[in-house]
TrEMBL record:
InterPro entries xrefs: AAA+_ATPase, ABC_ATPase_HisP-typ, ABC_transporter-like_ATP-bd, ABC_transporter-like_CS, MetN_ABC_transporter-like, P-loop_NTPase
Family under the similarity heading: Belongs to the ABC transporter superfamily.
Gene Ontology MF annotations: ATP binding; ATP hydrolysis activity; ATPase-coupled polar amino acid-transporter activity
The protein, known as: ABC-type polar-amino-acid transporter
Gene3D superfamilies reported in the protein's UniProt record: P-loop containing nucleotide triphosphate hydrolases (3.40.50.300)
Amino acid sequence: METSDSRASGDPLVVLTDVQKHYGDFQALKDINLTVHRGEVVVVIGPSGSGKSTLCRTINRLETISSGSITVDGRELPKEGKPLAELRADVGMVFQSFNLFAHLTILENITLGPMKVRGKKKADAEREAHELLERVGVDAQANKLPAQLSGGQQQRVAIARALAMRPKLMLFDEPTSALDPEMINEVLDVMVGLARDGMTMIVVTHEMGFARKAADRVVFMADGLIVEEQQPEGFFTSPRSERAKDFLSKLITH
């Protein structure tokens, strides 16, 4: 489904094969097969309860799968221990809630991972942290505590914190859903910039404008299934499935 002008530039970075996820009798993911290429931006959309967030969280094993396989950069997801910690260092994740350490300054939030996990010296970690905070537009807040920042600023810090680990892949699980409307665009603008810079991204979101602007591919889920996937223009103008047509018609009319 790539085009010649797609950012996706080569080998698969994430491969899900026949993935199933059960919570007791409830099946949250059904026969999921998905490949995300290096440099590709894949936006996952669909109605609430369709399995989008579960799918996202399986990729760094925040959710375990019942069967099937997931590989990241050619390696199957480790079960636990140091190999799993190493994988999570390579896969940045940004959640609905910002999950910043409340007792640490913004700068300390960003430098903690690189120093503890990557073994960076404090001066180097702080220099890179300031560069990232500048990139997301909140370097002036570096010495404040998270509670002193707006929600939009905190989410931009959370993105910078994930980027500080120099991840191969960024996962976003509805990163704007907890924000006031006027703060949403400031976070989406940072994400669009990342997409343009070639970061591989899997984004679960309700923000259709972002999907149109930044995605290489839209994956539409419903009832635990990938119902269809295609490039944004095709998906939004001529969805192939009745389920997607119904979903999009509700978005437009409300």
